[in-house]
Amino acid sequence: MLHLNLFILGCGHHRAAWRHPASPAERLADIAYYEELARIAERGKFDAVFFADGHSAYDVSDCPFWVLEPLTALAAMARATERIGLVSTISSTFYTPFHAARLLASLDHISGGRAGWNVVTSMYDAEARNHGYASMPDHDWRYRRADEFAQAVLGLWNSWDADALRIDRAGDFADAARVRPLRHQGEHFLVDGPLNSLPLPQRHPVMFQAGASEQGRALAARHAEAIYAVAYDLPAAQAYCRDVRARVRAAGRQAAVPIMPGLVTYVASTDAEARAKQRSLDELLPTETSLQQLGMFTGQDCSGWALDAPVPALPPIGQYHGPQGRYATILRIIEVEQPTVRQLLGRLAAGGGHCTMVGTPEQIADEMERWWREGGADGFNLMPPALPGSIEDFVEQVVPVLQRRGLFRTEYTGRTLREHLGLARPA
Amino acid sequence: MLHLNLFILGCGHHRAAWRHPASPAERLADIAYYEELARIAERGKFDAVFFADGHSAYDVSDCPFWVLEPLTALAAMARATERIGLVSTISSTFYTPFHAARLLASLDHISGGRAGWNVVTSMYDAEARNHGYASMPDHDWRYRRADEFAQAVLGLWNSWDADALRIDRAGDFADAARVRPLRHQGEHFLVDGPLNSLPLPQRHPVMFQAGASEQGRALAARHAEAIYAVAYDLPAAQAYCRDVRARVRAAGRQAAVPIMPGLVTYVASTDAEARAKQRSLDELLPTETSLQQLGMFTGQDCSGWALDAPVPALPPIGQYHGPQGRYATILRIIEVEQPTVRQLLGRLAAGGGHCTMVGTPEQIADEMERWWREGGADGFNLMPPALPGSIEDFVEQVVPVLQRRGLFRTEYTGRTLREHLGLARPA
């Protein structure tokens, strides 16, 4: 059975989506817009909605990636939905374990056990300089902190036994012997605990992890219960899955960890119509901003690159110090497709080099099924290029095909995100 | 016109409220319970609901003060209400300005301009040790940090001009010249800004402040737009109001700052019935826990105190290093009422020494009106001893009396918390 998340991002994952006349650009601070998206995904029986997050404003002349803070937005969305999971990105570099454990505990209570967290280490100096760092701490330090962060957060959730409550009106509210301090003291954090919450519906909100670097994979192998992967094509996805599954086993973990690559889809009743949808978004793209973004993704100054010339040679991956997964994908697009700069911009403007599938509902279902059968994916984190249109298209046209093939649920069988993903409740 | 907040705390402000057979003790992690409370207060046309907060679990054998994290809870409650303000306590000692500014901005967007924040500096070592401090930093340091925190948070909200958005689909999303970095660098914080949000509905969520110490009053005078005060009786309230109003003027501020003392009420159709309500809660109080709490409030070991003996002499206020306001009130209760230990416990178990009014709706309205006419209050932060019963009593019985006297609104005239409180929109 496939797992599907809706990855919510601004007006959609295509950077030019907001420029479309029908885009929700005026509604980015309106919680009702996000509630509608969650309801569409719930109508499609998705496992979860997934919120990315960042801690700086980037280039304000372009549409923001995020406007509402995800935990507060998801708390509201929890009350507009009944079954769908609610996954918030959390930066382990900027949050402290107590705040994170508490906010997520609260979301798990508010949603009745539908909370998830996607641990990231953040990357930009502009973000670091909003949180007291003079510049972004280096990659190794961030991943050491992330590991300790995950341990401390899990420890805080474990500080209450599942059966700690008594609510004995003539005696004790909770059994003090079943609520224990954590007394965590590590390189980065001092956290005594216990958490000032009550036992959580899921015990632990489901931990997602993304990250293609060596340290990211190591962190995922130790802690992640589900993985948001980046894979440009099936061979890349298969290689990633093989590697991470081996690491999970090597870490002594028995349970399956669903791997969900990001996926951009353009669906229509004919292949030509689907391609036209894609082209119409690509044509809204302003060249200058796109070249700036390409510069951010490659660590190059791309402002002078000729649009219709082949992409200049890029340094090998070892020399790039930003997020490794996306850079590897760019190198792969260049190698496989030998695109012009303009063509590369078009690919990167939607999903930043994640897999793109364009075609009819049957064609897209075929391709998704192939990834699943051939060990490239346990599901997908859908990155609709334009919201809400692209996710409505997917839910109305692709989901029924997947359901007819027995590849996707026709009804929720569980009430918690953990149940949707087939994950055991932590002991 | 009076202002009224509902101060939400667990099963109510009386420490024994949860022990009543009809208490909501099983629902403390259920967001629907808090939504119901907010709807009751909104039916009563209250200005706001007000959430206290703390960062440790205290004694888990007794009912917790807080279970849900306030910002996530209020985000959900925003969608269950339409007009009422939503005030979250924020610890400036544990939060950083960027997180606080962003979470509150998100709540202001989600609620359509109904967010407020109550800045506290926190007080207990157990809380400090959940957030990386070996022990609680001293009072002066915390208040210096709170002042810088307030400046940085306001600065982040100011980083977007109110008219910064363009949403020009052929051009810019925002006018980059109207979104400015903050570049705050002070003793405690480095925050570059701008905030990754959009201009806020209220521009600034309304800042509440509580705190009776010299530093607390100074902070309130510089920044607070509304004040949650502690006053045992009208003379204490009058003295507090005179002092704080003079400080606000001395700080060069022209606008009125509504002062709202905490108020515990027991209402019934006869005075005897109201007293019986109070007594029935007092009788649920376990002695040992109450003596422990008294120890926390006074810095003494009270465990051996004889219940029916007069309260032993306490050190003068200068020798007590906890929250000054509450301690001063305890000294005053002892001076005025000369209570036994048991009687003092009864007073402190509900509202910790805040003003208590017991009687018929007319009697309570008389007393509230007297405080208001004689310069002791611009409104009240209601601390219902037992929830939801005590606030239902107040809304159904006292509010209509206040409304008939023209002392309280019969309908909301504004849509934002700022409008409810008669506060100008910051320039």
From TrEMBL, chains A, B:
Highest taxon in the source lineage: Bacteria
Stored CDD domains: Nitrilotriacetate_monoxgenase
Record-linked Gene3D superfamilies: Luciferase-like domain (3.20.20.30)
Signal peptide: none
GO-annotated molecular function: monooxygenase activity; oxidoreductase activity, acting on paired donors, with incorporation or reduction of molecular oxygen
Keywords: Flavoprotein, FMN, Monooxygenase, Oxidoreductase
List of residues binding FMN: D53, T89, H139, Y143, S213
InterPro entries assigned to the protein according to its UniProt record, in alphabetical order: Diverse_substr_monoxygenases, Luciferase-like_dom, Luciferase-like_sf, NTA_MOA
Family: Belongs to the NtaA/SnaA/DszA monooxygenase family.
Name of this chain's protein: LLM class flavin-dependent oxidoreductase
Organism: Corticibacter populi
